[in-house]
């Protein structure tokens, strides 16, 4: 790993034995919550670790950074990428009730801002396309697949051909080879996206397959391949990104598809429910 690409944590591990006791104290503070480097000045960080500002300056030079600001820029880049390690805040003595209230207010703000940013015309076009599609493929990796599963779980009740990708043990080619302009692919791409997402969307775009892309506000490169893009707010007051707005918007999307399909979706759902009873699958 090059010095430029090396993370703060890897640099600390590499240089630990050569750090002074005061520098090691500062290292312990940063390893507990490296994200505070992005938020604090050198003076503030030194105060939180109980060391001098001069110690803080020497510490970052010993780690190979040109300056404190260079290290801070790297930490901000890590935060922007969605690294949970850099998103966690330093431990505080805030009461639980205060933490809960801040979290609630942030979740509400995410919902409100996401719904306000929806383009109703674009959403209706996507709903029409999904309702009329021969096949609907829902695709996402890592935590994005959790949201993809929500969409799949709703659409499978109303549409006769819905598929969730990637499947364990499978490659994508076998499933995408038969895709065409008669299908719709719903792609979920939250930050810290895997390169496989853009590669798949690029291949689908070459086949002229219509795509709906559901992402966070910083939708990234995959957005250029999609016909419709929905961006949801995912900021959180705590460690992990919020999925409240994503869940709400996906519920809205699937409900609108069911409404658009009308009697077709109702008839299909009735068949599903009848089979549930025949197979004694649900309580």
UniProtKB/TrEMBL annotation:
Positions of the HTH rpiR-type domain: 6-82
Query: Where does the UniProt annotation place the signal sequence?
Result: none
Q: Report a single Gene Ontology molecular function.
A: carbohydrate derivative binding
Residue ranges spanning the membrane: these are: none
Q: Name one GO biological process term.
A: carbohydrate derivative metabolic process
Query: Which Gene3D superfamilies does the UniProt entry name for this protein?
Result: Glucose-6-phosphate isomerase like protein, domain 1, Winged helix-like DNA-binding domain superfamily/Winged helix DNA-binding domain
- Provide the protein name: MurR/RpiR family transcriptional regulator
Species this protein is from:
Candidatus Pantoea deserta
């Amino acid at each position: 790993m090059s010095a430029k690409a090396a993370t703060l944590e890897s640099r600390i591990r590499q240089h630990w034995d050569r750090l002074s006791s005061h520098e090691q104290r500062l290292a312990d503070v940063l390893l507990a919550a490296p994200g505070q480097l992005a938020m604090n000045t050198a003076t503030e960080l030194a105060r939180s670790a109980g060391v001098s500002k001069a110690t803080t300056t020497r510490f970052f030079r010993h780690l190979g950074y040109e300056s404190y600001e260079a290290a801070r820029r790297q930490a901000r880049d890590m935060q922007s990428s969605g690294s949970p390690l850099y998103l966690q805040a330093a431990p505080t003595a805030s009461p639980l009730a205060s933490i809960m209230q801040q979290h609630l207010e942030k979740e509400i703000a995410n919902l409100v801002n996401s719904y306000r940013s929806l383009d109703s015309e674009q959403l209706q076009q996507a709903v029409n396309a999904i309702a009329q599609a021969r096949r609907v493929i829902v695709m996402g990796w890592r935590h994005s697949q959790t949201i993809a599963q929500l969409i799949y779980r709703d659409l499978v009740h109303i549409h006769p051909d819905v598929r969730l990708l990637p499947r364990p043990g499978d490659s994508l080619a076998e499933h995408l080879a038969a895709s065409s302009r008669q299908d719709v692919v719903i792609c979920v791409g939250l930050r810290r996206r895997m390169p496989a997402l853009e590669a798949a969307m690029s291949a689908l775009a070459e086949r002229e397959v219509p795509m709906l892309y559901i992402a966070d506000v910083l939708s990234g490169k995959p957005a250029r391949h999609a016909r419709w893009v929905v961006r949801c707010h995912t900021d959180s007051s705590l460690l992990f990104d919020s999925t409240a707005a994503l869940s709400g918007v996906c519920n809205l999307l699937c409900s609108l598809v069911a409404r658009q399909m009308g009697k077709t979706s109702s008839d299909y759902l009735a068949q599903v429910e009848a089979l549930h009873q025949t197979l004694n699958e649900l309580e």
